[in-house]
Amino acid sequence: MSEPPLVSVAGLAVARGGLAVLEGIDFVVSRGAALILRGPNGIGKTTLLRTLAGLQPPLAGTLSALPEAVAYAAHADGLKATLSVTENLRFWAAVYGTGSIDPALNAMNLSALRDRPAHSLSAGQKRRLGLARLLVTGRPVWVLDEPTVSLDAASVALFATAVRAHLAGGGAALIATHIDLGLHEARVLDLTPFRARPPEAGGIRGSFDEAFA
Amino acid sequence: MIPDLGKYAGAVLGSYAVTIALLLGLVAVTLWRSAKVKRALAAQEARMGQGDG
Amino acid sequence: MSIWEYANPKKFMQTSAWALPWVAGLTLVTLIGGLVWGFFFTPDDYKQGSTVKIIYIHVPAAMMAINVWAMMLVTSLIWLIRRHHVSALAAKAAAPVGMVMTLIALITGAIWGQPMWGTWWEWDPRLTSFLILFLFYLGYIALWGAIDNPDTAADLTGVLCLVGSVFAILSRYAVNFWNQGLHQGASLSLDKEENVADVFWYPLVVSITGFVLLFLALVLIRTRTEIRARRLQALETRERMA
Amino acid sequence: MIALLARDLALAVRAGGGFGLGLAFFLIVVTLVPFGVGPEGGVLARIAPGILWLGALLACLLSLDRIFALDYEDGSLDLLATAPIPLEGVVTIKAAAHWITTGLPLVAAAPVFGILLHLEGAGFFWLTASLALGTPALSVLGTFGAALTVGLKRGGLLLSLLVLPLYVPTLIFGAELVRRGVAGMETTTPLLMLAGITAATVALVPFASAAAIRVNLR
Fold this sequence. Notes:
C: mainly alpha; D: about 85% helix; heme binding (chain C); transport (chain C)
């Protein structure tokens, strides 16, 4: 391999509320690749993504994704209702030290709405603004938690286009989703087999159980 | 039996009474909660069929 | 054998189960012994009259009020650095005991102060400091109670205990500056025992031992309870998830 | 970081009442005090330093729970925690924004309220000086309390319980400084203590606040 993958995960276990939820996860995501995470509700997709984003420490295993490389987008968009579309984006561009916000506005088809305050946007428009934030971060690894909630079919397609452009530019994406994004080239990882076993069956102990080793 | 406490009887007796009451209360709460949790844990372990804890 | 072995909950449960009857028995002997000795068999002070008998509860309670917080600081640090759960749970278990000790020190101080100073409450630096310490205990306990996730609660209360300790000491200094008090000086530090006549000193030592042992016994029981509660919570969560 | 400060200030202005609310509360406290203790100028002048400091403290407390709560609810806090700004910087900026919207107006307006309470001559200078020195510590400590309670549904009352004991040293030295200033006594000790507490608080407490935020986001 010519260069190390952007994200590589080996034997990763993550915990929620003191109990292991997922264990033994291995995957690599190289430049230009996308990985789609699937699994039933409550299996720990969000927990896994938060771990990848560096918001919580892994319970076990290794995780070699630089937190500085990751741009995280959660269920909530982190928008300020009283600020306009451009103000919201400019803020994040300034935080990440990147330049112009116009490409992001164009990519997410928000140019016409640029001076509207965020509270006057529809749910789908807000979501698009939240995704436009990813573009202004300038970070290579996108970690996306249910990015297409409240997007219509056209917007989903718009989103897929943006992801493809990001991948083509040498980025990578990890996406937890229930629906088909139309990203056929992306690898799909079903998390169901990685559900953590109870400690009696040899599973990893969460910090709760650790207290009774 | 009770020593002559003179004019400060109220203060001395009051102090001892309050202290003993507070300490007994603390002990009672501690023991009560201890018993309650012990019982709940035993019940839960029995239900889950792993009485080894 | 390392001392950290006792940080293992199972080991702690075994050891504490063995130690508890001894500690409890000794507590009963020394605490009742000290208080009975102090109450029935000590003379009155020529100046303070029979109120001097309050010393056998006021002073040990005040010492414990401070020392329990110090112990919580140490166990919080151990938790934050080495992540031993027993340590965090011991801090949680100790806090209400320390709060009651502070309350006893405050109430007996007020009752003692009434005949001596002629008022129930005097904003004397030491009493005021204990009042502030009481507030710190309240906040600490309330924070434990407010957070569901036990690890989060342990971390946050640990941080609060650290910051609180610094500000408790600062407050002590500030209060001293703000009002020079009526309290007698540190007549009871161990190296100055000649300040107190032997007739008062020996029962006081027994009483202090009794308070220390009582604290130890209570913390052992309460930590055992917390460990069980923690296991219970883990089992319930697992059952819900399965 | 400047962008964050600018955003927080813009939000405070647009949400309305960002600047005004603390000040209005301060005014109400100062107005109500004479109703409680009687209108005699002598009494008011004597308790003015304490009342003004207490009012500043309560006004500051009033807006603490909003420091992180809004960012937590809309997800911004997650995003800020993964952004290239260190979290210690974020909490410092949050404290700074809180101080600019509550502490600074109080410092500026305090002399006016001093008039209402018959504060004596030298007091005006010392009141302004002590508030200017002390209120940053109040904001930073309040940020720490807000960081501890950020994930809690009803953290408001708990927040006050946690933060108020931490305010004791600042309150004591702040009010003492004004009292001594009015009485023409030596002011160096409380002045240095107040400045020292504020400096140490501003320098060190953000680390604790950032640690608390990390734990809460976990």
